[in-house]
Design a protein that fits this description.
The complex is a heterodimer of chains A (248) and B (437). Chain A is built from nine helices and ten strands. Chain A has 248 residues and is α/β, with parallel strands linked by helices. Chain A has one domain: Rossmann fold (3-Layer(aba) Sandwich). In chain A, the strands form two sheets. In chain A, strands 6-7-8-3-9-10 form a six-stranded mixed beta sheet, sandwiched between helices. In chain A, strands 2-1-4-5 form a four-stranded antiparallel beta sheet, covered by helices on one side. Chain A starts with 15 loop residues before the first strand and ends with a helix. A four-stranded mixed beta sheet of chain B has the order 4-3-5-6, covered by helices on one side. In chain B, strands 1-2 form a two-stranded antiparallel sheet. The longest helix of chain B has 35 residues. In chain B, 43% of the residues are buried. The chains are: A alpha/beta (248), B mainly alpha (437).
């Protein structure tokens, strides 16, 4: 069992999937990430919580290697992951991407399916689960924000990397849709580990096993909700919102 | 390999769905049609006199009269429109966030850029359709086509387009938005055009600099001359910008590493055109052998083993120097192993400045300790002086005389083809792509 700064493990979460150590990132004079360290356990859903501008997307891009870091390492099974190796273990789905926007949704899904070596059945299942059937023949750029988010989610779930990083996966969904997406993520997670960057705390509380609070590039707390409540000196049964307000 | 083919298809689809491509093709059809009809009209006017005088007929060359002016439309499209299509290859992916996904797929930046460039190459073939129609129309009108020199013209434009595309790719990798990338790319291509324009009609150093501008390199292909220097320069510029795009594509690479790699690429690539000047190679592809002397003369000049020094007392703006430079000096540069040319005239220009320099207009020759001089820039006279200094006699070999191909024709009927059929065809292609892809 791991404890303290990393937070404790849930039963069944034994293996460390990925370890982030001392990550620092600065844009000019602005320190976006400051000594961020945490571990992800195989099979867990890990929530990266923080207000807008906290550095969540930057952290995900640094982990994926899409941004150079000033300091820090990303390792897996005790081995530091080089830039070229990360794409074998991590798939990062940015929230603002609109890939091949002029192409039809069907063609885009088919491209990523074949790239990731998935069956057509997987796409069919995702199309059904995400209710994409009626937009399959439409170009991506003509879709509403909600549908674009669903297509992006489908693209992310088609990937096969063991660690899936999703940036704001519930953004653009209403409550009912968010609950459906949570159910979908749980179903599609299988053996994979998920790191979700979320600013909607109510959604995060419902789906994540553990949380990392990020505020202005620093990490004031990490752990399960109960552990965070304890660290914040709150009574058991405190919500994530209360915990977050106590720490930030 | 399967994934590479998939991505290539995806990139081609992306380009075929881009309105910029089809707009470029429609404009290209109109420009090519206008240039062709005008060229045929002017060629016909000149041919009317030439048909009665065989001497004049020898000057009627379809390459200069028809194909080069028609391909001038391609030059415009490649310089001003092609960058807007090519910038999308990387720029749109950056803007839409697609690049973040592509970089996570199992492709290196080198493969990604290579596949994008290949996709552009496939799509570029579409732009050859108006040129193919020109060849077909000219053939139908009874015009003469010498395929090697037309093929060289295609090669020149292919290399020019490749260079423009790689510049556009690089512009898109280092800039944050499509308009900025377009401005960056156009500043290079138009800057090169200005360089060529400044050098036009001038001899000496400005002409040498102009020859290495992008347009200057293209002119060599337009004149029917295939040189290792022009091919190596185009390829090295293209390869240089391509490799720079590869280096700058990945946002995860650190700046010092990118700068160091860029310096290495620039240093390596810059040396390629320089190396090609030490290993000059050329082939005269023109049907009228305008870049060649009589084979006997070429052989004799190539065997001159001592330095041949030529001092030219003509200023850079003088048309006589321009004639001398483009004809005999260019040929001597390619043939004589140890040629030294010195431009002795200062700022004096033209006949009215001759009184300032008694030697103005004179061309001095020195070979093996012997001197001679002349005011003539005629080919026969210059060769006679050189042979006299070298103490050799050369007997010209009999060669076929270029007959010239004057033709009086009316290309007016083909305006429907260029102004209506081709644009409609491209418009249909645009709509079809939008519906099917």
């Amino acid at each position: 069992m791991t404890s303290g700064r990393q937070g404790s493990l849930h039963p069944g979460l034994q293996e460390i999937e990925c370890r982030v150590q001392g990550l620092c990132k600065r844009f000019g004079d602005y320190q976006v990430l400051s000594d961020v360290s945490f571990s992800l356990f195989t099979g867990e859903i890990f929530g990266l919580i923080g207000p807008n501008g906290a550095g969540k997307s930057t952290l995900l891009e640094c982990m994926t290697g899409l941004l150079p870091v000033d300091a820090g390492t990303i390792s897996r099974q005790g081995r530091e992951l080089a830039l070229a190796d990360r794409r074998r273990y991590l798939w990062y789905q940015p929230d603002d991407a609109l890939p091949f926007a002029r192409q039809r949704v069907r063609a885009i899904l088919s491209f990523f399916r074949r790239m990731h070596g998935r069956d057509e059945g997987d796409v069919t299942e995702l199309v059904t689960d995400l209710k994409l059937a009626q937009v399959l023949a439409k170009p991506l750029h003509t879709l509403s924000k909600g549908y674009r988010r669903r297509v992006l989610l489908a693209l992310a779930l088609l990937s096969r990397q063991p660690l899936l990083l999703l940036d704001e996966p519930f953004d653009g969904f209403d409550l009912r849709q968010s609950l459906a997406v949570m159910e979908l993520l749980r179903r599609w997670k299988k053996e994979r580990t998920m790191l979700l960057s979320i600013h909607q705390l109510s959604e995060a509380e419902k789906i994540c096993d553990r949380f990392l609070l990020l505020d202005q590039g620093r990490m004031p707390a990490i752990g399960t909700l109960a552990e965070l409540a304890g660290q914040a000196g709150l009574a058991g049964g405190a919500t994530l919102e209360e915990v977050f307000l106590a720490f930030t | 390999m399967r994934r590479a083919r998939l991505l290539l298809q995806q990139e081609i689809c992306g380009l075929l769905l881009a309105p910029a491509l089809w707009i470029m093709l429609i404009i290209l059809s109109l420009l090519v049609g206008y240039s062709f009809i005008q060229a045929v009209d002017l060629f016909s006017q000149a041919s009317r006199t030439a048909l009665t005088f065989p001497e004049l007929a020898r000057g009627m060359n379809p390459l200069d009269g028809i194909f080069v002016p028609t391909f001038g439309a391609y030059y415009l499209a490649e310089t001003l429109l092609l960058p807007f299509v090519a910038i999308r290859l990387v720029g749109l992916d950056k803007q839409s966030g697609a690049l973040k996904l592509l970089l996570q797929l199992p492709f290196s930046p080198l493969s990604l850029c290579g596949l994008k460039l290949s996709a552009m190459g496939v799509v570029w073939l579409l732009s050859l359709l108006p040129a193919a129609v020109v060849l077909f129309q000219w053939h139908l009108l009874g015009g003469h086509i010498f395929f090697p020199e037309v093929a060289l013209l295609f090669l020149g434009h292919g290399l020019y387009s490749l260079t423009i595309v790689t510049i556009a790719m690089f512009a898109a990798t280092i800039t944050g938005s499509l308009p900025t990338a377009a401005m960056f790319c156009l500043s290079i291509t138009l800057g090169s055009w200005v360089l060529d324009f400044t050098a036009a009609g001038r001899a000496g150093l400005p002409a040498i600099i102009g020859r290495f501008s992008l347009a200057g390199l293209l002119h060599q292909f337009e004149s029917g001359l295939l040189t290792t220097g022009a091919v190596a320069s185009f390829l090295s510029i293209g390869l240089g910008f391509f490799l720079l795009s590869v280096v700058w594509l990945h946002p995860g690479r650190r700046l010092p590493g990118k700068l160091a790699a860029s310096l290495l690429i620039v240093a390596s690539i810059a040396s390629v055109p320089a190396l090609s000047t030490f290993m000059p190679g050329y082939r005269d592809i023109s049907e009228n052998r305008r870049h060649s002397l009589n084979p006997a003369d070429s052989q004799a000049l190539a065997q001159l083993d001592k330095p041949l020094r030529i001092t030219v007392h003509l200023s850079a703006g003088d048309s006589r120097l321009l004639d001398l430079e483009n004809d005999m000096l260019a040929k001597l540069r390619r043939l004589v192993p140890k040629l030294q040319i010195r431009y002795a005239a200062g700022k004096a220009s033209g006949l009215f400045s001759a009184d300032r320099d008694d030697n103005y207009g004179l061309i001095e020759y020195e070979y093996n300790g012997r001197h001679d001089k002349s005011y003539s820039n005629s080919r026969q006279e210059i060769l006679a002086i050189i042979y006299k200094l070298a103490g050799i006699k050369v007997k010209a070999q009999p060669v076929a005389v270029y007959p010239g191909y004057p033709l009086v024709a009316d290309a007016g009927a083909s305006r429907w083809l260029f102004y209506l059929v081709l644009p409609l065809l491209f418009l249909c292609g645009w709509l079809y792509s939008g519906k099917r892809l």
